[in-house]
Amino acid sequence: MSSSVNVYINNGSCDKLLSYLMDLDQLQLEEFKLCLQSPELLFGNFQKIPWANLKASDPVNLLSLLGEYFSERQIWEVTLSIFENMNLTSLCVEIRACTYYPYTVKSFDQERVRYRERMKAKILMMWDNMPWPEGHIYLRNVTEKEHKELKSLLYPNRMGAQPQTIVLEGVAGVGKTTLAMKAMLHWAEGFLFQQKFSYVFFISCHKVKEVKDTTFAGLLSWDWPDSQPPFDELMSHPERLLFVIDGFEEMDMPSNLDASPPCTDWFQRLPVHRILFYLLRKDLVPGATLLITTKEYRTKDLKRLLLDPCFVQISGFTEGDREEYFIRYFGDQNKAKKILRWVRKNENLFYFCSAPMVCWAVCSCLKRQMARSPCFQLSTQTTTSLYVYFFSSLFAKAEVSLSAQSWPEQWIALCSVAAEGMWFWNFTFAKEDLKHRRLEASLIDTLLSLNILRKVSDCDGCVTFTHQSFQVFLGAMFYALGGTKGSMGSPAKHEEMKVLLTDALADINFYWNQMTLFFFGLLKRNLAGELEATLRCKVSRRITDELLEWAEELGSYDIVFNRFEFLHFFECLYETQEENFVRQILSPLLEADLDIFGNLQLQVASFCLKHCQRLSKLRLSVTVPIPQTELTFTTETLDSHSKIHQWQDVCSVFCHGNVRELDLSNSKLNAFSMKKLCYELRSPRCKLQRLTCVAQGTGSLRKKEKWVQLGLTLHLDLYSLEKCQLSAAVYRGLASCLTSTQRTTRLCLGFNPLQDDGVRLLCSSLTHPECALERLVLWFCQLRAPSCKYLSDALLENKSLTHLNLRRNSLGDEGVKLLCEALSRPDCRLQNLDVCGGGSQGHSVGLMTPKGLQECGMQSDLWLMQGLFFPPFCLFHSLSGCSLTAGSCQELANALRHNHNMKILDLGSNDVRDDGVMHLCEALKDPSCALNTLGLEKCNLMPACCQHLSSVLGSSKSLVHLNLLQNDLEPSGVGILWKALKKSTCKLQKLGLKKELYDIVKGELEELQERGSFLRVKCKWDFNDLEDKWWW
Known about the structure:
By secondary structure, this protein is α/β, with parallel strands linked by helices. Helices cover about 45% and strands about 10% of the residues. The chain contains 42 helices and 29 strands. An 11-stranded parallel beta sheet has the order 17-18-19-20-21-24-25-26-27-28-29, covered by helices on one side. Strand 28 (about 990), helix 42 and strand 29 (about 1015-1020) form a beta-alpha-beta unit. Helix 30 crosses helix 31 (about 640-650) and helix 40 runs parallel beside helix 41. It starts with 10 loop residues before the first helix and ends in a 14-residue tail after the last strand. Residues about 1-10, about 105-110, about 695-700, about 840-875 and about 1025-1030 have low confidence and may be disordered.
């Protein structure tokens, strides 16, 4: 405010202020002047009066100066603030009781009262202009409970903290805007927040988004048509302001706004989205409270913008509300509850009914259908069919002055508007939008009268769909109707449809999911007939062919990698109820990933899986309860019978003879459902090879063993029974399984207390001539030297075992000596031995997929995990962490001289030292030695060992991988190695070195690679790299 401006002060108020200043003695007056120079006492927003003007002023001149720089309200605030700072308590009490003090009850600001009245009238007008369809039942009135709900949002929480930013999020039509409007209305009526907020502002994002450039002050002035808002008061007390920002999803926030510098100027002209950005970020009004409403798909954007927001989920009608609505609508309680039971079974529809307008649409549709057809069957209805009948029943009696030839074109135009709006998240349409699509006024008037469209109260000439699901349905209907033009003009409609389906089925967005559900539901034959007969639409005859083409094209699209929503795809197919079409569209499907956590998921999985004739890989996470036993058929047990039959349909997929891999990880199957599953898996037609089950949490030992024993009867190729705490009885069953079939070739018993007795039982089957086991993992099994004797004897007789993993068992030198009795025999077939101690080797487990191995965690309830630990190339013989010394290396070196089958040997995390390396290198120099991989990670090696290794690297024709990680070789040792590595006779391709040592030779390595060398240096082994799979 310029100092040349004189602010008018009421005479009575001026006299009173002057009397307070006159009461000050000279020292107090000087202190008062000094305080006027303090920004803290001026609230940071008021201008400072130059000291030259203040210095010689008496009380009269001082008051005149105050009038030049401050408004009347500000003078009172500054005076009170300074008196409080000067501890003039009695004067402060007088000011607060003074009639002219602007915040006293006696002189309550009339302007604020007028603002409350204006806002009350505005909200009530918006409320009155909101069209409610005939027969709609409004359940909630202004009640004490509602007041409590609103208070809980804007008053301190249990921790005593006051939330300053509250976000009401939820799907369309559940009451977010209604709740925000009521908060403002109850404030305007004086019921709520009287002591908390002086002003409450309602900002409609839909209304302001059409504004070009304006100021924040200009936005606030919209609700002061006859005067200016009290900006001084608003700026000086931001903590007493509440901004209700409705419909954030309507705003388009450019991504580059995050880098914008703060803006605090209320009068700076800016694009409206920038003003809202600065308001949300608390730049413009730092202490104000924000109440924001948004649809849930914009929640992420808000989290990025807001400081410490509190998100409140608005869920709409509760189950009790829905029940009350149905009972009041149908009048007959028994009839209403019967209908509601059916709606509950249709989980999608029941969820939609959380929106009051959907409740009305469902009830009105069902009531008309039942009146029209006494034989109307609820059980045959889908969500899509209800929406079709809703629209057709409304238009059956509607009088629309359109010619018969115009109807198809008008429906395509309307549906095109809806579809384009969905692409661009536009839910409000101006006159120009409708005119551009050539929608006739008579159709628009009819849609408004039928409550399919409604006028937008704060946007002249704009319309929106009464509920967003109406727009979603009509948007889906656009792709089912005839015509080739897309909703956006280009590309063509069928191409646009393919993009929609592919994107929607790789996205969990609620509205896209709804749209695809409706689209597939419209393929139901009788619905196409209903649309053509009642709405006079023309459904495309090529739509099923185009969908089958799209399904074929999915073959080139990595649906697993791109997180294809199989379950939603199956829900869409279930919505069609056309089994022939479902069988055709699922015929190319080779793999599927389904989480069956509820009745709907079980229902759609059972409907679709039985038609997946070529499915080869299936992941099922089944947590829905399935009844334990067959029940006597009654009305009460109908649902249980349905679940049992649905589970049987799911299990029947294995009888097609194509499923090779099954993953039941995180499933919770009871004994009854397991028996049903195993019955199908034992079928001669079942060709299952790999079974995985990683269960979260812990289960009883008895239950684990029961599942394992059930699994052993399946005679699979591969078993992994990690962390199952198996008993001797299970080991006997396992031994029997290995000898009763030549099918099992891979077995992992890691992390079980197998001990020496368990190995003895196991080795009795390894010596059996019918045993075909090729790969055996016994890591962390509490084995000692006696186990090596049993294994050695078995290796002498067994002609199939090529891979043995014994890492992290206390075998000691004695155990290795016993093993080497077999290893030193030329006819011993073992190729890969792992006695590593873990080191950097992770215990990753994965299911083979077309892309390789996907990692999955090993949990304590692991059972029947098959085909995961053994890549198709080779594992190593692992003796890591087995308490070995140089003495063991001497025994192993002797074995290597005689056994030319050994390819991989890992001795990591053992006390090998330089002497052990010396023994091994002597064997590696033998031209007949076939070892190609040697693991010496964390083996306490020193630079001296590099001399032995260097002699081998320059001459060995087989060694291509050498791991020396976590050894202190020092630069001198690496220098010795590098001399050998640079020789043309060196065949090494991969070398593990500590990073600081790698940095020393990095430049020379690059030169070698430029000259054609294949050598790579690794500072960490990446076990997701296919080229590193040999290592673990």
